[in-house]
């Protein structure tokens, strides 16, 4: 008999303010996670994001605010597994790995922003070579000049990762 597949929706962290209010990018990722959850109602939810000067300086991990947003939108508490309290995308993948293994998860749906997908794919494929991965892109609604800065940052970060991986 086939082992039942166990799916997790991984919601990658993004900024919140000093009061825990989620940024537009974080809210877009939460909305995309809700879309995925509606498609996969048996999936568990694994939020990522701890602390960092560039995205969360509150006393709670960023994943707490993601979880709060999703539960207020109707995702039951029982669907959540622990948060990967990461400070960046490299840690998102690395810290998610023991959680995924502990829960016997066989498939990941990684939710992140459209501009962030290439780097997330690189890192999660490197960390999870033997697991089914799907990437789900949240549309980023920011002014074009700001979006271009984010895309440039992502291209440079991905190039550095590929160079260090060579």
Descriptive notes:
With 166 residues, the protein is an alpha/beta fold. The chain has one domain: Rossmann fold. 45% of the residues lie in helices and 14% in strands. The chain contains five helices and four strands, in the order βαβααβαβα. The chain has a four-stranded parallel beta sheet. Strand 3 (107-113), helix 4 (117-127) and strand 4 (132-138) form a beta-alpha-beta unit. The longest helix is centred in the last third of the chain and has 22 residues, at 144-165. The radius of gyration is 15 Å and the shape is globular. The termini are far apart.
Write the layout of secondary structure elements.
Layout: E1 7-11, H1 24-39, E2 44-47, H2 62-72, H3 89-102, E3 107-113, H4 117-127, E4 132-138, H5 144-165
Helix pairs in contact: 3-4
Number of domains: 1
Instruction: Pick out the low-confidence regions.
Output: none
Radius of gyration: 15 Å
Q: Termini separation (Å)?
A: 40 Å
Shape call: globular
CATH class: Alpha Beta
Order of SSEs, N→C? EHEHHEHEH
Quick one: CATH superfamily? HUPs
The fraction of residues in strands falls at: 5-15%
Structural class by sheet pairing and helices: alpha/beta
Helix content: 40-55%
Q: What name does CATH use for the topology?
A: Rossmann fold
Q: Helix tally?
A: 5
Mean pLDDT: 96
| Major β-sheet profile | 4 strands, parallel
Per CATH, the architecture is 3-Layer(aba) Sandwich
- In the sheet with the most strands, the strands line up as 2-1-3-4
Q: Give me the count of strands.
A: 4
């Amino acid at each position: 008999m086939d082992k039942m597949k166990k799916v997790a929706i991984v919601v990658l962290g993004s900024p919140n303010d000093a009061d825990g209010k989620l940024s537009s990018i974080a809210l877009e990722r939460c909305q995309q996670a809700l879309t995925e959850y509606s498609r996969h109602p048996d999936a568990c939810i694994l939020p990522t994001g701890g602390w960092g000067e560039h995205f969360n300086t509150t006393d709670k991990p960023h994943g707490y605010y993601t979880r709060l947003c999703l539960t207020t939108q109707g995702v039951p508490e029982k669907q959540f597994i622990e948060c990967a309290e990461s400070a960046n995308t490299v840690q998102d993948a690395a810290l998610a790995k023991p959680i995924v293994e502990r829960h016997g998860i066989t498939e990941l749906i990684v939710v992140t922003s459209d501009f962030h997908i290439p780097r997330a794919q690189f890192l999660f494929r490197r960390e999870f070579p033997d697991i089914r991965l799907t990437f789900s892109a949240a549309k980023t609604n920011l002014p074009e000049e700001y979006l271009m800065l984010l895309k440039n940052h992502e291209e440079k970060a991905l190039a550095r990762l590929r160079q260090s991986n060579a």
